[in-house]
Design goal:
This protein is an alpha+beta fold. It has two domains: 239 residues, Spore Coat Polysaccharide Biosynthesis Protein SpsA, Chain A (Alpha-Beta Complex); 135 residues, Galactose-binding domain-like (Jelly Rolls, Sandwich), CATH 2.60.120.260. It is built from seven helices and 22 strands. The strands form four sheets. Strands 1, 4, 5, 6, 8, 9, 10, 11 and 12 form a nine-stranded mixed β-sheet that branches. A hairpin with a 2-residue loop joins β9 and β10. α3 packs across α5. The longest helix has 50 residues. The N and C termini lie far apart (48 Å).
Length: 408
Amino acid sequence: MQALILAAGRGSRLGSHTADVPKCLLEVGRRPLIEHQLGTLADAGVGPVGMVLGYCADEIKGVVGIRAEYILNPRWNSTNSLYSFWLAREWARGPLVILNCDTIFHPEILDRLLAVKGDAIAYDSGSGDGREHMKVNVVNGRIVAMSKDLPAGDVTGENVGILKLTHDTAGALFRKADRIVADGGENRWLGSAVAELVQEREVRAVEVAGLPWGEIDFPYDLDRVRKEVWPLIQRATRMRRRRWRLARAAAAITIGLLFLLTGFRAWVSPVESVWETVDLDNAERVTLLDGERVQNWGLVRSGQIVRMQVVGGGTIRVDSRILLSEGTEAAVPYVLEILLDGERVGWFKETGKPSNTWHHATWTVAKRDRIKIEVPAGPHSLELRLVASDSGQCLVRVRQRVVDEGDE
Protein backbone atom coordinates (compact mmCIF):
# COMPACT_ATOMS: atom_id res chain seq x y z
CA MET A 1 0.00 0.00 0.00
CA GLN A 2 1.69 3.19 -1.20
CA ALA A 3 1.02 6.65 0.23
CA LEU A 4 1.02 9.88 -1.77
CA ILE A 5 1.36 13.18 0.10
CA LEU A 6 0.53 16.35 -1.85
CA ALA A 7 2.92 19.01 -0.57
CA ALA A 8 3.74 21.31 -3.51
CA GLY A 9 1.85 24.48 -2.58
CA ARG A 10 2.97 27.41 -0.50
CA GLY A 11 -0.10 27.80 1.68
CA SER A 12 -0.36 31.53 1.00
CA ARG A 13 -3.51 31.84 3.12
CA LEU A 14 -1.30 31.24 6.17
CA GLY A 15 0.42 34.57 5.50
CA SER A 16 3.73 35.10 7.27
CA HIS A 17 3.71 31.57 8.72
CA THR A 18 4.74 30.20 5.31
CA ALA A 19 6.86 33.14 4.13
CA ASP A 20 9.93 30.91 4.11
CA VAL A 21 8.61 27.63 5.57
CA PRO A 22 6.29 25.22 3.70
CA LYS A 23 3.10 24.02 5.35
CA CYS A 24 4.36 20.55 6.07
CA LEU A 25 7.32 21.87 8.09
CA LEU A 26 5.19 24.01 10.41
CA GLU A 27 5.68 22.70 13.93
CA VAL A 28 2.88 21.07 15.88
CA GLY A 29 3.80 19.63 19.24
CA ARG A 30 7.45 20.66 18.66
CA ARG A 31 7.68 18.48 15.54
CA PRO A 32 7.16 19.32 11.85
CA LEU A 33 3.71 18.38 10.63
CA ILE A 34 5.18 15.96 8.08
CA GLU A 35 6.82 14.00 10.89
CA HIS A 36 3.40 13.25 12.36
CA GLN A 37 2.13 12.03 9.00
CA LEU A 38 5.17 9.87 8.26
CA GLY A 39 5.03 8.36 11.74
CA THR A 40 1.34 7.49 11.43
CA LEU A 41 1.84 5.94 7.99
CA ALA A 42 4.81 3.94 9.26
CA ASP A 43 2.90 2.67 12.30
CA ALA A 44 0.12 1.47 9.99
CA GLY A 45 2.59 -0.30 7.68
CA VAL A 46 1.83 1.98 4.72
CA GLY A 47 4.67 2.59 2.29
CA PRO A 48 6.61 3.44 0.26
CA VAL A 49 5.69 7.12 0.56
CA GLY A 50 5.78 9.56 -2.35
CA MET A 51 5.68 13.34 -1.93
CA VAL A 52 4.83 15.87 -4.63
CA LEU A 53 6.97 18.92 -3.87
CA GLY A 54 7.26 22.45 -5.21
CA TYR A 55 7.62 25.36 -2.79
CA CYS A 56 10.69 24.94 -0.54
CA ALA A 57 11.33 21.47 -1.98
CA ASP A 58 14.95 21.35 -0.81
CA GLU A 59 14.00 22.26 2.75
CA ILE A 60 11.44 19.45 2.84
CA LYS A 61 13.93 16.94 1.43
CA GLY A 62 16.38 18.00 4.11
CA VAL A 63 13.90 17.00 6.83
CA VAL A 64 12.35 13.92 5.26
CA GLY A 65 15.47 12.50 3.61
CA ILE A 66 15.09 9.06 2.07
CA ARG A 67 11.94 8.25 4.00
CA ALA A 68 10.03 9.36 0.90
CA GLU A 69 10.40 9.39 -2.86
CA TYR A 70 9.92 12.73 -4.58
CA ILE A 71 7.94 14.01 -7.56
CA LEU A 72 8.61 17.66 -8.39
CA ASN A 73 5.94 20.10 -9.53
CA PRO A 74 7.93 22.90 -11.19
CA ARG A 75 4.67 24.79 -11.78
CA TRP A 76 3.55 24.73 -8.16
CA ASN A 77 2.86 28.48 -8.16
CA SER A 78 0.38 28.32 -11.08
CA THR A 79 -1.31 24.93 -10.60
CA ASN A 80 -3.32 23.19 -7.89
CA SER A 81 -3.62 19.83 -6.13
CA LEU A 82 -5.14 18.00 -9.12
CA TYR A 83 -2.10 18.82 -11.23
CA SER A 84 0.26 17.69 -8.44
CA PHE A 85 -1.66 14.43 -8.16
CA TRP A 86 -1.50 13.96 -11.94
CA LEU A 87 2.30 14.29 -11.87
CA ALA A 88 2.48 11.15 -9.70
CA ARG A 89 0.74 8.95 -12.28
CA GLU A 90 3.96 7.10 -13.21
CA TRP A 91 5.07 6.72 -9.60
CA ALA A 92 1.89 5.04 -8.32
CA ARG A 93 2.04 1.28 -8.85
CA GLY A 94 -0.64 -0.21 -6.61
CA PRO A 95 -3.23 0.54 -3.91
CA LEU A 96 -2.87 4.10 -2.74
CA VAL A 97 -3.48 6.26 0.32
CA ILE A 98 -3.74 9.93 -0.69
CA LEU A 99 -3.50 12.80 1.78
CA ASN A 100 -2.76 16.51 1.86
CA CYS A 101 0.33 17.64 3.74
CA ASP A 102 -1.66 20.13 5.86
CA THR A 103 -3.75 17.57 7.75
CA ILE A 104 -3.04 16.14 11.19
CA PHE A 105 -5.18 13.27 12.42
CA HIS A 106 -5.62 10.59 15.04
CA PRO A 107 -3.97 7.31 13.89
CA GLU A 108 -7.27 5.46 14.26
CA ILE A 109 -8.66 7.43 11.31
CA LEU A 110 -6.13 5.74 9.04
CA ASP A 111 -6.72 2.40 10.74
CA ARG A 112 -10.44 2.64 10.01
CA LEU A 113 -9.78 3.43 6.35
CA LEU A 114 -7.36 0.54 5.94
CA ALA A 115 -9.85 -1.85 7.56
CA VAL A 116 -12.39 -1.20 4.79
CA LYS A 117 -12.26 -3.53 1.82
CA GLY A 118 -12.12 -1.51 -1.36
CA ASP A 119 -12.22 2.26 -1.78
CA ALA A 120 -12.91 4.57 1.16
CA ILE A 121 -12.89 8.23 2.23
CA ALA A 122 -12.83 9.45 5.84
CA TYR A 123 -15.50 12.00 6.77
CA ASP A 124 -16.60 13.76 9.95
CA SER A 125 -20.36 14.09 10.45
CA GLY A 126 -19.75 16.67 13.17
CA SER A 127 -18.35 19.16 10.69
CA GLY A 128 -19.10 20.55 7.24
CA ASP A 129 -20.88 23.85 7.82
CA GLY A 130 -17.93 26.12 6.98
CA ARG A 131 -17.58 27.88 3.64
CA GLU A 132 -14.15 26.34 3.00
CA HIS A 133 -15.14 22.84 4.11
CA MET A 134 -15.08 20.10 1.46
CA LYS A 135 -18.56 18.78 2.14
CA VAL A 136 -19.82 15.26 1.41
CA ASN A 137 -23.21 13.66 0.94
CA VAL A 138 -23.38 10.10 2.25
CA VAL A 139 -26.17 7.69 1.29
CA ASN A 140 -26.25 4.09 2.51
CA GLY A 141 -22.66 4.24 3.63
CA ARG A 142 -21.16 5.53 0.39
CA ILE A 143 -20.10 8.96 -0.86
CA VAL A 144 -22.51 10.15 -3.56
CA ALA A 145 -21.44 13.80 -3.83
CA MET A 146 -18.57 16.02 -2.70
CA SER A 147 -18.18 19.78 -3.10
CA LYS A 148 -17.53 22.95 -1.11
CA ASP A 149 -20.85 24.22 -2.50
CA LEU A 150 -23.20 21.37 -1.57
CA PRO A 151 -26.67 22.59 -0.53
CA ALA A 152 -27.03 22.57 3.27
CA GLY A 153 -29.75 19.90 3.09
CA ASP A 154 -27.39 17.49 1.30
CA VAL A 155 -24.43 17.88 3.64
CA THR A 156 -23.66 14.78 5.74
CA GLY A 157 -20.26 15.93 6.95
CA GLU A 158 -16.81 17.13 5.95
CA ASN A 159 -14.20 15.26 3.96
CA VAL A 160 -11.16 14.77 6.20
CA GLY A 161 -8.84 14.71 3.20
CA ILE A 162 -7.58 11.11 3.42
CA LEU A 163 -8.51 8.62 0.69
CA LYS A 164 -7.73 4.93 0.31
CA LEU A 165 -8.07 3.59 -3.23
CA THR A 166 -7.52 0.23 -4.85
CA HIS A 167 -5.05 0.01 -7.72
CA ASP A 168 -7.89 -0.03 -10.24
CA THR A 169 -9.69 2.98 -8.76
CA ALA A 170 -6.46 4.95 -8.36
CA GLY A 171 -5.86 4.34 -12.06
CA ALA A 172 -9.36 5.62 -12.85
CA LEU A 173 -8.70 8.77 -10.81
CA PHE A 174 -5.42 9.37 -12.64
CA ARG A 175 -7.25 9.03 -15.96
CA LYS A 176 -9.79 11.61 -14.86
CA ALA A 177 -6.98 13.94 -13.80
CA ASP A 178 -5.32 13.38 -17.17
CA ARG A 179 -8.49 14.41 -19.01
CA ILE A 180 -9.03 17.47 -16.81
CA VAL A 181 -5.43 18.62 -17.26
CA ALA A 182 -5.69 18.11 -21.02
CA ASP A 183 -8.80 20.31 -20.99
CA GLY A 184 -6.90 23.10 -19.22
CA GLY A 185 -8.05 22.35 -15.67
CA GLU A 186 -4.60 22.54 -14.06
CA ASN A 187 -5.91 24.91 -11.41
CA ARG A 188 -8.64 22.63 -10.12
CA TRP A 189 -8.62 20.87 -6.77
CA LEU A 190 -8.15 17.10 -6.67
CA GLY A 191 -11.54 17.00 -4.97
CA SER A 192 -13.23 17.92 -8.27
CA ALA A 193 -11.92 14.72 -9.86
CA VAL A 194 -12.88 12.69 -6.78
CA ALA A 195 -16.39 14.18 -7.00
CA GLU A 196 -16.68 12.74 -10.52
CA LEU A 197 -15.22 9.43 -9.39
CA VAL A 198 -17.83 8.83 -6.68
CA GLN A 199 -20.56 9.18 -9.30
CA GLU A 200 -19.19 6.13 -11.10
CA ARG A 201 -17.65 3.93 -8.41
CA GLU A 202 -18.67 2.87 -4.93
CA VAL A 203 -16.45 4.70 -2.45
CA ARG A 204 -17.28 3.86 1.13
CA ALA A 205 -17.75 6.65 3.67
CA VAL A 206 -15.82 6.03 6.89
CA GLU A 207 -17.21 8.00 9.84
CA VAL A 208 -14.56 9.46 12.16
CA ALA A 209 -16.64 11.90 14.23
CA GLY A 210 -15.20 12.19 17.74
CA LEU A 211 -11.63 11.48 16.66
CA PRO A 212 -9.42 14.60 16.67
CA TRP A 213 -8.12 15.92 13.35
CA GLY A 214 -7.50 19.26 11.72
CA GLU A 215 -6.72 20.83 8.36
CA ILE A 216 -4.45 23.88 8.37
CA ASP A 217 -5.50 26.50 5.79
CA PHE A 218 -5.50 29.74 7.80
CA PRO A 219 -3.60 31.10 10.82
CA TYR A 220 -6.52 30.36 13.13
CA ASP A 221 -6.46 26.72 11.90
CA LEU A 222 -2.82 26.45 12.91
CA ASP A 223 -3.58 27.98 16.30
CA ARG A 224 -6.51 25.62 16.85
CA VAL A 225 -4.48 22.56 15.85
CA ARG A 226 -1.67 23.48 18.21
CA LYS A 227 -3.89 24.34 21.18
CA GLU A 228 -6.84 21.96 20.79
CA VAL A 229 -6.38 19.19 18.22
CA TRP A 230 -2.82 18.09 18.94
CA PRO A 231 -3.30 17.76 22.74
CA LEU A 232 -6.32 15.52 22.08
CA ILE A 233 -4.38 13.39 19.59
CA GLN A 234 -1.45 13.17 21.99
CA ARG A 235 -3.67 12.15 24.90
CA ALA A 236 -5.56 9.58 22.84
CA THR A 237 -2.34 8.18 21.39
CA ARG A 238 -0.84 7.76 24.85
CA MET A 239 -3.92 5.83 25.98
CA ARG A 240 -3.73 3.69 22.88
CA ARG A 241 -0.06 2.91 23.50
CA ARG A 242 -0.81 2.20 27.17
CA ARG A 243 -3.44 -0.37 26.17
CA TRP A 244 -0.97 -1.86 23.70
CA ARG A 245 1.71 -2.15 26.38
CA LEU A 246 -0.74 -3.76 28.81
CA ALA A 247 -1.68 -6.34 26.19
CA ARG A 248 1.99 -6.97 25.47
CA ALA A 249 2.74 -7.25 29.18
CA ALA A 250 -0.03 -9.83 29.65
CA ALA A 251 1.34 -11.87 26.77
CA ALA A 252 4.87 -11.52 28.14
CA ILE A 253 3.77 -12.76 31.59
CA THR A 254 2.09 -15.79 30.03
CA ILE A 255 5.12 -16.63 27.91
CA GLY A 256 7.40 -15.94 30.88
CA LEU A 257 5.52 -18.43 33.07
CA LEU A 258 5.83 -21.05 30.35
CA PHE A 259 9.51 -20.25 30.09
CA LEU A 260 9.95 -20.71 33.83
CA LEU A 261 8.16 -24.04 33.75
CA THR A 262 9.99 -25.44 30.75
CA GLY A 263 13.34 -23.77 31.21
CA PHE A 264 13.93 -24.28 34.93
CA ARG A 265 16.52 -27.00 34.28
CA ALA A 266 18.56 -24.50 32.27
CA TRP A 267 18.69 -22.22 35.33
CA VAL A 268 20.19 -24.83 37.59
CA SER A 269 22.53 -26.53 35.12
CA PRO A 270 25.79 -25.21 33.66
CA VAL A 271 25.07 -23.80 30.20
CA GLU A 272 26.97 -22.12 27.40
CA SER A 273 25.65 -19.05 25.51
CA VAL A 274 25.48 -19.14 21.70
CA TRP A 275 23.95 -16.93 19.00
CA GLU A 276 20.95 -18.19 17.07
CA THR A 277 19.00 -16.76 14.12
CA VAL A 278 15.40 -15.82 14.95
CA ASP A 279 12.57 -17.00 12.69
CA LEU A 280 10.81 -14.14 10.91
CA ASP A 281 7.05 -14.61 10.97
CA ASN A 282 6.11 -13.23 7.56
CA ALA A 283 9.22 -12.84 5.40
CA GLU A 284 10.14 -14.78 2.27
CA ARG A 285 13.23 -16.93 2.82
CA VAL A 286 16.32 -16.18 0.69
CA THR A 287 19.51 -18.28 0.60
CA LEU A 288 22.96 -16.74 0.04
CA LEU A 289 26.01 -18.75 -0.96
CA ASP A 290 29.76 -18.40 -0.50
CA GLY A 291 31.23 -21.53 -2.00
CA GLU A 292 29.91 -24.28 0.24
CA ARG A 293 28.82 -21.89 2.99
CA VAL A 294 25.11 -21.08 3.23
CA GLN A 295 23.20 -18.28 4.97
CA ASN A 296 19.42 -17.90 5.23
CA TRP A 297 17.90 -14.42 5.27
CA GLY A 298 14.43 -12.87 5.19
CA LEU A 299 13.40 -10.71 2.23
CA VAL A 300 11.79 -7.38 3.15
CA ARG A 301 10.24 -5.13 0.53
CA SER A 302 9.80 -1.38 0.94
CA GLY A 303 6.99 -0.62 3.39
CA GLN A 304 6.62 -4.26 4.48
CA ILE A 305 6.70 -5.09 8.19
CA VAL A 306 8.28 -8.34 9.38
CA ARG A 307 7.70 -9.59 12.90
CA MET A 308 9.39 -12.00 15.26
CA GLN A 309 9.56 -12.97 18.93
CA VAL A 310 12.84 -12.41 20.79
CA VAL A 311 13.91 -13.08 24.36
CA GLY A 312 15.98 -10.63 26.45
CA GLY A 313 17.81 -9.44 28.29
CA GLY A 314 20.88 -8.60 26.43
CA THR A 315 21.83 -7.59 22.93
CA ILE A 316 19.81 -8.41 19.82
CA ARG A 317 21.70 -8.15 16.53
CA VAL A 318 19.85 -7.00 13.41
CA ASP A 319 21.86 -7.73 10.26
CA SER A 320 20.79 -6.29 6.91
CA ARG A 321 21.96 -6.35 3.30
CA ILE A 322 20.44 -4.09 0.65
CA LEU A 323 19.80 -5.74 -2.73
CA LEU A 324 21.47 -3.77 -5.51
CA SER A 325 21.01 -3.30 -9.23
CA GLU A 326 23.55 -5.02 -11.43
CA GLY A 327 26.66 -2.90 -11.93
CA THR A 328 26.13 -0.75 -8.82
CA GLU A 329 29.41 0.43 -7.30
CA ALA A 330 28.50 3.48 -5.20
CA ALA A 331 27.11 3.21 -1.68
CA VAL A 332 23.31 2.94 -1.67
CA PRO A 333 21.48 4.40 1.36
CA TYR A 334 18.46 2.80 2.98
CA VAL A 335 16.50 3.19 6.21
CA LEU A 336 15.25 0.49 8.58
CA GLU A 337 12.65 1.19 11.24
CA ILE A 338 12.75 -1.02 14.34
CA LEU A 339 9.97 -1.32 16.93
CA LEU A 340 10.09 -3.24 20.21
CA ASP A 341 6.70 -4.15 21.72
CA GLY A 342 5.03 -1.57 19.49
CA GLU A 343 7.37 1.28 20.51
CA ARG A 344 9.75 2.69 17.92
CA VAL A 345 13.39 2.06 18.82
CA GLY A 346 14.52 4.31 15.98
CA TRP A 347 15.11 4.92 12.30
CA PHE A 348 18.48 3.48 11.27
CA LYS A 349 20.13 4.83 8.14
CA GLU A 350 22.49 2.31 6.56
CA THR A 351 24.48 2.09 3.32
CA GLY A 352 25.36 -0.87 1.18
CA LYS A 353 28.13 -1.67 -1.30
CA PRO A 354 28.38 -4.88 -3.33
CA SER A 355 29.68 -7.84 -1.37
CA ASN A 356 32.55 -9.82 -2.90
CA THR A 357 31.80 -12.74 -0.62
CA TRP A 358 28.12 -13.63 -0.55
CA HIS A 359 26.11 -14.15 -3.75
CA HIS A 360 22.60 -14.81 -5.03
CA ALA A 361 21.57 -16.18 -8.41
CA THR A 362 19.30 -13.21 -9.19
CA TRP A 363 20.40 -10.17 -7.17
CA THR A 364 23.62 -8.37 -6.38
CA VAL A 365 23.97 -8.55 -2.59
CA ALA A 366 25.49 -5.73 -0.54
CA LYS A 367 27.86 -6.07 2.38
CA ARG A 368 26.31 -6.66 5.77
CA ASP A 369 25.24 -3.78 8.02
CA ARG A 370 24.64 -4.47 11.70
CA ILE A 371 22.43 -2.79 14.30
CA LYS A 372 22.68 -3.74 17.98
CA ILE A 373 19.71 -3.29 20.31
CA GLU A 374 19.61 -3.79 24.05
CA VAL A 375 16.48 -5.73 25.00
CA PRO A 376 15.10 -6.02 28.57
CA ALA A 377 14.71 -9.42 30.16
CA GLY A 378 11.77 -11.56 29.07
CA PRO A 379 9.97 -12.23 25.79
CA HIS A 380 9.31 -9.36 23.40
CA SER A 381 7.86 -8.63 19.98
CA LEU A 382 10.31 -7.13 17.46
CA GLU A 383 9.18 -5.51 14.19
CA LEU A 384 11.32 -4.38 11.25
CA ARG A 385 10.31 -2.24 8.29
CA LEU A 386 12.24 -1.08 5.23
CA VAL A 387 11.25 2.57 5.16
CA ALA A 388 13.04 3.67 2.01
CA SER A 389 15.65 2.51 -0.47
CA ASP A 390 16.52 2.93 -4.12
CA SER A 391 16.12 -0.79 -4.79
CA GLY A 392 12.94 -1.31 -2.76
CA GLN A 393 14.07 -4.50 -1.04
CA CYS A 394 16.69 -5.80 1.35
CA LEU A 395 17.59 -8.88 3.34
CA VAL A 396 17.42 -9.03 7.14
CA ARG A 397 18.54 -11.51 9.77
CA VAL A 398 17.95 -11.17 13.50
CA ARG A 399 20.15 -13.00 15.99
CA GLN A 400 19.74 -13.40 19.73
CA ARG A 401 21.78 -15.01 22.45
CA VAL A 402 20.40 -18.35 23.62
CA VAL A 403 21.65 -21.19 25.82
CA ASP A 404 23.20 -24.36 24.51
CA GLU A 405 22.28 -27.34 26.68
CA GLY A 406 24.66 -29.72 24.94
CA ASP A 407 23.96 -33.04 23.24
CA GLU A 408 21.50 -35.28 25.02
